[in-house]
């Protein structure tokens, strides 16, 4: 019994939930990042407009007095700016010639790479900077100033801390995330119910399989499941049909075997009773008693032979494919079987010979191959008349490293061409075989084909090459290809 090393698959419902919900959560996370950026942009747009308004209000208080740029910025105005923006305000006014006029002289200057804002008609620039270890947003406005004596451009800078902007972006983000979290929770519930609903036919099929009786091999209705699962149900039905055919064949085999065994055993019992009766009524009639006892022995031999064939056939049908396969010599196997059955051939006056030019290797099970050769040679000995010939050949196709060939040729009655396929069925016997050996079992060739099929070999029946008789040819795959297969 082999143990599978493949890791078992988990729950189908769990996999569907993971494949549906994990991408959804990832998309929500990516959307949260996008929402956060959009919230920051929205806060910048809103607060930049307010910052520009403060800058313009400050610019209106810049004028030229006595030839100098002055800024009249009372503290009340600054307090109103801070109240409107909900953040701290810093400003700086630079004169026409770049001289400091008012405000905070260390306010960060306008970087050269900052572009003018296209959202407003004024000459305003917005940029982020750090002032007194705090991030600030600065609006820089170029304001024309003039009087009767001079004119020029003053530079107005107003900086605002980012507290209000961050609060607004966080509020937008949290509001959006709450809604998306509720959406994800609703999606989880909907997906769970949807997966449960979709898998309901499959679970019903599982319950139907569990509820089936061991002897119920009827088909399942593939229309009760989804289209994607129908091939599986159809394959299950096909497998159960093959299983039903196998069980039917086994039952038929048992019935045939019981019938075949019952007849010789009944005869054996009758002959034994007759022997006892003859012994009681005619104790001096030793010749008649001897004949009866000899018939008992023959019938017993036939019964034992039949039982052995039945066991061999059962092993060939159910055990050959599971037997250990290895590289073995077909030539040595043929030589060994020939020596084992040589005495039976000699008793019948048969000429048994082996023709093997080289050591032919095949990939197979030695015990099964020995059984195959024993059945072939035993059949040849049984059906070949006295003084006949039996040739056992082991060779390769075309004399090279191709397929291995095993041939058993006899000078017996042979098998008619119309019956050569039917003789492989258990208990079927050709007419010529019944005439030559009435006590045969009809299992030899069935065993041969089962073992040959397990080894990937083909079996062919043909007329003997010289005169009457039968030639059985088995073609095995080449050793290298069979081993790789």
UniProtKB/TrEMBL annotation:
Coiled coil: none
Catalytic activity: ATP + protein L-histidine = ADP + protein N-phospho-L-histidine
Enzyme Commission code(s) on record: 2.7.13.3
The organism's place on the tree of life at top rank: Bacteria
InterPro entries for the chain: 2CSK_N, HATPase_C_sf, HATPase_dom, His_kinase_dom, HisK_dim/P_dom, HisK_dim/P_sf, Sig_transdc_His_kin-like_C, TCS_sensor_his_kinase
Subcellular location: Membrane
Histidine kinase domain mapped to chain residues: 256-480
Alphabetical list of CDD domains matching this protein: HisKA (cd00082)
Record's keyword terms, sorted: Kinase, Membrane, Phosphoprotein, Transferase, Transmembrane, Transmembrane helix
Protein's UniProt keywords contain Phosphoprotein: yes
GO MF assignments: protein histidine kinase activity
Keyword Transmembrane helix in record: yes
Gene3D superfamilies reported in the protein's UniProt record: 1.10.287.130, Histidine kinase-like ATPase, C-terminal domain
Stretches that traverse the bilayer: 177-199
Main location: membrane
Matches recorded under PANTHER family: SENSOR HISTIDINE KINASE YKOH, SENSOR PROTEIN QSEC
UniProt protein name: histidine kinase
Species this chain originates from: Undibacterium arcticum
């Amino acid at each position: 019994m082999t143990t599978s090393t493949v890791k078992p698959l988990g729950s189908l419902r769990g996999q569907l939930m993971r494949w549906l919900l994990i991408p959804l959560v990832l998309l929500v996370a990516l959307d949260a990042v996008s929402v956060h950026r959009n919230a920051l942009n929205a806060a910048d747009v809103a607060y930049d407009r307010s910052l520009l308004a403060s800058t313009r209000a400050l610019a209106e208080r810049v004028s030229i007095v006595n030839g100098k740029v002055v800024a009249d910025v009372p503290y009340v105005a600054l307090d109103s700016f801070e109240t409107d923006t909900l953040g701290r305000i810093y400003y700086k006014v630079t004169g026409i010639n770049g001289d400091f006029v008012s405000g905070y002289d260390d306010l960060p200057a306008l970087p050269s790479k900052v572009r003018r804002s296209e959202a407003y008609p004024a000459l305003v620039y917005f940029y982020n900077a750090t002032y007194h270890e705090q991030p600030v947003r600065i609006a820089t406005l170029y304001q024309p100033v003039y009087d009767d004596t001079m004119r020029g451009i003053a530079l107005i800078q107003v900086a605002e801390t980012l507290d209000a902007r961050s609060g607004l972006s966080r509020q937008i983000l949290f509001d959006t995330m709450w809604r998306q979290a509720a959406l994800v929770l609703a999606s989880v519930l909907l997906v769970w119910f949807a997966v449960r609903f979709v898998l309901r036919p499959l679970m019903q099929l599982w319950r139907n399989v569990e509820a089936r009786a061991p002897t119920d091999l009827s088909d399942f209705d593939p229309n009760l499941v989804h289209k994607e699962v129908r091939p599986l149900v159809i394959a299950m039905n096909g497998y159960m049909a093959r299983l039903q055919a196998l069980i039917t064949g086994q039952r038929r085999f048992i019935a045939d075997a019981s019938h075949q065994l019952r007849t010789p055993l009944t005869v054996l019992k009758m002959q034994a009773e007759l022997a006892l009766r003859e012994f009681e009524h005619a104790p001096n009639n030793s010749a008649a008693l001897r004949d009866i006892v000899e018939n008992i022995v023959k019938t017993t031999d036939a019964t034992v032979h039949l039982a052995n064939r039945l066991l061999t056939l059962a092993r060939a049908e159910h055990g050959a494919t599971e037997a250990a396969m290895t590289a073995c010599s077909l030539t040595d196997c043929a030589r060994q079987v020939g020596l084992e059955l040589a005495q039976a051939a000699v008793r019948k006056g048969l000429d048994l010979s082996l023709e093997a030019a080289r050591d032919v290797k095949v990939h197979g099970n030695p015990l099964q191959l020995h059984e195959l050769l024993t059945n072939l040679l035993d059949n040849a000995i049984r059906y070949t008349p006295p003084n006949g010939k039996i040739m056992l050949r082991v060779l390769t196709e075309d004399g090279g490293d191709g397929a291995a060939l095993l041939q058993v040729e006899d000078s017996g009655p042979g098998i008619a061409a119309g019956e050569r396929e039917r003789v492989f069925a258990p208990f079927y016997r050709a007419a010529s075989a019944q005439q030559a050996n009435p006590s045969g079992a009809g299992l030899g060739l069935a065993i041969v084909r089962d073992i040959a099929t397990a080894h990937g070999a083909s079996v062919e029946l043909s007329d003997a090459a010289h005169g009457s008789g039968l030639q059985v040819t088995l073609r095995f795959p080449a050793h290298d290809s069979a081993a790789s297969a």
